[in-house]
Write a structure and sequence with these properties.
The complex is a heterodimer. By secondary structure, chain A is mainly α. Chain A contains 23 helices and no strands. By secondary structure, chain B is α/β, with parallel strands linked by helices. Chain B is elongated, with a radius of gyration of 23 Å. Classes of the chains: A mainly alpha, B alpha/beta. Bound molecules: adenosine-5'-diphosphate (ADP) and magnesium ion (MG). Adenosine-5'-diphosphate (ADP) is lined by residues 14, 17, 19, 37, 39-45 of chain B. Residues 43-44, 84, 155-156 of chain B line the site of magnesium ion.
């Protein structure tokens, strides 16, 4: 196995580089999942209330069919989206430690040492599969500690890890296909999205006795889900997932043999000999347009889903005051459906802030990769360079939120036959999130301006706000903690009364912090 | 005519590292100036200060009669820069990158670009990720040479080029210097390149200029090595100015002598009486090796 020489060293290197991120996502996902047991046990104490909550078509599209009314089954069902996130993180991790390394040329540096040609892929897979295993064990222990049966707790661990494993393998295959990390990510995320859509369409069809129920059988996400933890724990499905993971990994290694380091299997197309770009903004558009398109489509889908389920949630909330209370804590409006929609808008706003931070951090990516240097050595000033990217980190989320608002307004408007009334209301509610999103973007700008090496800390903004949002939706939380999040200070829309003051204050805060960051950028060394 | 570049007493610290420690550099308008020094000497740091990317902790800097920190944007219209380690946008073709950088600087000469692509044998349609280090460097070189600027700052621009391309690079630099009268600051650690191209050179070590002048002036700093068989006793040879590494072995001597001091030493040898004499001409190579050695810092 000479081709695997050096794998151990590479695993250590990956663990060292990911020593913060890896434990963070494992612990976060386990903690959130385990906390749902208590939360949803309190919110839905009776089997009837659970079955009723889960029978809404919209929820079935989102999470799939409830396997049974016990608390374990109910919580597993409600956590139905988390395995998809595990799959996403897993495929991104594998691609980051394989194709990104090759694209950056670091792989070549290592390849010249005593590292076998398969070592990089093997190390990335071993680390990711191992991390999923740790996640599964912690989750099983955590669930069992909440007085859920052990066998079912192990089974839900397998649901998470199985999804993670399968998509880690998908990432490994995608990384072999193209020379571009971006395209590899696109392919792998496309497979994940496809699997999710197949499951959603199949399950929805099954619930309504439609003809497309078989679609679910094609989706690995559905395979994992149909292990049915706490119901009949179908272990054999775990074996199916394991076998297909092994098959994919074998394919990935086979593909790796057939190509050169740095090259992909799909040929790189030639580009134009002459360029049309001539300004920092044109370059930024080129660098940001893929991200913008992906987020906009994602937000539109999110809007469609939430808009589609809103009416059903309203029916259900009428019967169950505890859910009503939960959404009121999230968004806090008076009308039932409005409080649901407002809660959803806060969620969409929080996700938009992640996009804002990601787009802002492109500045740092450009700087640390060395690509900012030739640009700044032309007549482009630092302000212009930063502004060209900030256009996208500030207006990109606006476009994405607009898409969410339009989609949600259309879906909900069609459902209740009031498009003309709902569309502007929900567009307004979506765009109302922007000042809070911009505050988090501004914090990222400031960190980049003053402490460029700590730029990754900008993720703390959205993370903290999302945690505050998640926690305060479930349990009542101290006021000062909630006040940390700019989203807490937004009026609850739609439904609530919107005054200008909170918007203006948040905008002013964003402006001051952002400008300060730009001054910091102007004064510091670059690259730093 | 004012100097194209002048720095005095530049100091730049990164934490406890003194990257620059009182650097003086003067580049005259129209000359090709070699900027030599071992790895880590501070060449890149200096060039970043000249570009206004990094701010010096102490000292003064003038570039094209402007302050590189506060007048960066205006100055950048008049200069072009080729970094030592060129990274490009993986999804952009080489041609797109060249045009982008050229236009942001103020315009590309299409004809000149086509000619340079031809000479450097570069396919501009390839995506940057498919380029080797040398080809990425060519992209940056073509972008710099195709723009109409007064000053070129080249930071070890040939480190990834093969010998054939290195030759083309020399031709082009010579051309833009002779024909177009442009000023070039060429950071390098390749002596032959500097000897072929540069009017004057500055040698830096540990953030300080250790020598500066024309190549001829530097040749005076070189040493000739001499082996001789003498008839008489070799008294007083070791005390003479400019004699180094004297070895005596039974009527034979072997030593190095500073090229400036060669006459009095030869006179002393003939006084003693020479049976045979072999001398090795001075070489810049040897001078550089000597200046690069750690104890060379004065
Ligand atoms: N951003 C930085 N942070 C810390 N040290 C640096 C930085 N840039 C350069 N140095 C240090 O400054 C010294 C000079 O580096 P550099 O100018 O790159 O040398 P050269 O280009 O001559 O090889 C080196 O010791 C290097 O390690
Ligand atoms: Mg250097």
């Amino acid at each position: 196995m000479k081709s695997l020489a050096g794998t151990g060293g590479l695993i250590r290197l990956i663990l060292r580089r990911d020593r913060v991120v890896l434990p963070l996502w494992i612990v976060l996902l386990v903690a959130i999942s385990v906390s749902y047991v208590q939360e949803y046990g309190d919110l839905f104490p009776t089997p009837e209330s659970r079955v009723k909550y889960a029978s809404n078509v919209g929820f079935i599209t989102l999470y799939g069919e409830l396997s049974g009314p016990s608390l374990g089954e109910f919580v597993t069902w409600r956590l139905g989206f988390v395995p998809v996130m595990v799959g996403l993180i897993s495929l991104l991790t594998v691609i980051r430690h394989t194709r990104v390394e090759e694209e950056s040329g670091r792989r070549e540096l290592l390849g010249a040492t005593v590292v076998g040609r398969h070592a990089q892929l093997a190390a990335a897979l071993a680390t990711t599969l191992g991390a999923n295993l740790v996640l599964a064990v912690l989750l099983a222990l955590g669930m069992h500690s909440q007085d859920l049966p052990l066998s079912g707790s192990i089974a839900i661990g397998i649901v998470y890890a199985g999804t993670g494993w399968f998509f880690a393998a998908v990432g490994a295959v995608a990384a072999q296909l193209t020379a571009s990390a971006g395209t590899a990510r696109g392919i792998a995320i496309g497979v994940l999205g496809g699997a999710y859509v197949l499951r959603a369409a199949g399950d929805t069809s099954a619930h309504t006795d439609g003809p497309l129920a078989w679609l679910s059988h094609l989706s690995p996400i559905a395979w994992a889900q149909r292990i049915r933890p706490y119901a009949d724990n179908r272990w054999w499905l775990g074996i199916v997932i394991l076998a297909s993971t092994v098959a994919l990994i074998t394919i990935a290694f086979q593909l790796a043999v057939r190509r050169d380091v740095g090259a992909g299997l799909l040929p790189d197309r030639l580009g134009p000999a002459d360029g049309t770009m001539g300004s920092p903004l044109a370059l930024a558009w080129r660098l940001h347009r893929g991200l913008l398109a992906a987020w906009t489509v994602g937000f539109a889908l999110l809007g469609l889903l939430f808009g589609g389920v809103a009416e059903g949630v309203g029916d259900m909330m009428r019967d169950d005051p505890s859910i009503q209370e939960m959404f009121q804590r999230m968004g806090g409006a008076a009308g039932l459906i409005d409080s649901f929609l407002a809660g959803v808008m806060t969620l969409v706003g929080l996700i938009a802030s992640a996009y804002a931070v990601q787009a802002t951090l492109r500045l740092r990516v450009e700087e640390s990769s060395g690509r900012a240097e030739p640009v700044l050595a032309t007549a482009t000033s630092r302000w212009q360079w930063a502004a060209s990217h900030l256009v996208f980190s500030l207006l990109g989320p606006a476009v994405a939120l607009l898409a969410a608002g339009v989609a949600e307004g259309l879906a909900y408007g069609v459902a209740i036959g009031d498009v003309g009334g709902q569309l502007p209301r929900l567009i307004g509610a979506a765009l109302a999130q922007l000042p809070a999103v911009w505050v988090l973007a501004a914090i990222a700008i400031a960190i980049f301006g003053f402490f460029p090496q700590a730029s990754m800390a900008s993720w703390a903004g959205p993370t903290v706000c999302i945690l505050i949002g998640l926690v305060s939706a479930g349990v009542s939380t101290a006021g000062w903690i909630r006040d940390i999040s700019p989203f807490t200070h937004l009026p609850s829309l739609p439904g609530g009364s919107a005054q200008a003051a909170p918007f203006l204050v948040l905008l002013a805060i964003a402006l001051v912090i952002g400008l300060a960051g730009l001054v910091g950028l102007r004064r510091r060394d670059l690259p730093a | 005519m004012p100097a194209a570049i002048s720095t005095e007493g530049l100091v730049k610290r990164f934490g406890r590292t003194h990257a620059l420690d009182g650097l003086d550099l003067a580049v005259r308008t129209g000359e090709v100036h070699g900027f030599l020094g071992p790895n880590g000497a501070g060449k890149t740091t200096t060039i970043r200060i000249l570009l206004g990317m990094t701010r010096a902790d102490e000292g003064t800097t003038r570039v094209l009669d402007g302050d590189p920190w506060s007048d960066a944007t205006e100055l950048h219209r008049r200069l072009a820069y080729v970094p030592g380690d060129v990274t490009l946008w993986p999804n952009l073709s080489g041609g797109e990158a060249i045009d982008l950088l050229g236009r942001m600087r103020g315009g590309v000469d299409k004809k000149r670009k086509a000619e340079l692509l031809e000479r450097f044998d570069l396919d501009p349609r390839k995506k940057a990720r498919a380029y080797s280090k040398g080809n990425r460097q060519k992209v940056a070189l073509v972008a710099a040479f195709a723009s109409d600027v007064e000053l070129l700052l080249l930071d070890e621009p040939t480190s990834g080029l093969d010998p054939l391309m290195e030759e083309i690079f020399r031709e082009v630099v010579q051309e833009i210097s002779d024909r177009d009268g442009r000023t070039v600051l060429l950071s390098s650690h390749i002596l032959s390149e500097v000897e072929a191209l540069c009017d004057r050179v500055t040698i830096i070590r540990a953030g300080r200029a250790v020598e500066s002048g024309t190549l001829n002036e530097l040749r005076h700093l070189t040493r000739t090595s001499i082996q001789a068989e003498l008839v008489g006793p070799m008294d007083g040879l070791a005390q003479l100015n400019g004699v180094h590494d004297l070895q005596v072995d039974d009527g034979r001597v072997r030593f190095d002598v500073d090229t400036d001091e060669i006459n009095p030493v030869l006179r002393r040898l003939t006084e003693i009486g020479v049976r045979s004499l072999v001398s090795q001409p001075p070489s810049l190579e040897e001078l550089f090796l000597r200046l690069y050695e750690p104890e060379a810092v004065k």
